[in-house]
Specification:
about 150 residues, ph1033 like fold, alpha+beta, eight-stranded mixed β-sheet
């Protein structure tokens, strides 16, 4: 089983609203080189970047990859804040199993992940322009454990 982080920027796309509206989502795969490695059953974490609100970035949802990436139409063109540049592009289908859009609900803040022994090395913390980031085996184990223990009561 592999794990992936799929990143969205709230200054370009209403990530929170998208996750509230849909249990199955489509996510842009960039760089496209990862498309051959993403498989059904892989773990998916959704990352919201800080955008204009410093300190709000981090993992806000957990799910499962449902298929291999293919060329598809965007399924939420009305949620784009910036004009959509890729209405038809390589996208992967993900089933959302859990969402936590705020610190109170148990999201994993970027600032907390930066302090963790293995998670401070997550690629999403170093490369900001991609939409997909692989997670190593140790990082996946640590992220799952941290996600499970951070759920709000």
């Amino acid at each position: 089983m592999k794990g992936w982080i799929f990143q969205g920027n709230p200054t370009k796309f209403n990530v929170d609203q998208y996750l509230l509206l849909k249990n199955e989502i489509l996510w842009l795969v960039r760089p496209q080189g990862y498309a051959k490695r993403i498989e059904p059953g892989d773990i998916a974490f959704i990352w919201r970047s800080d955008g204009l609100k410093k300190g709000t970035g981090g993992i806000i949802a957990y799910g499962e990859v449902l298929d291999t990436p293919t060329i598809r139409e965007d399924d939420a063109p009305d949620l784009w804040i910036s004009p959509i540049t890729t209405p038809r592009a390589l996208r992967v289908r993900i089933r959302i199993l859990d969402r936590r859009l705020s610190q109170v609900s148990g999201m994993l803040l970027r600032t907390v992940l930066k302090e963790h022994t293995s998670l401070k090395e997550l690629w999403v913390l170093k490369w900001h322009s991609q939409t997909v980031f692989p997670i190593s085996g140790t990082q996946l184990r640590d992220l799952i454990s941290m996600w499970e223990s951070s759920k709000a009561d």
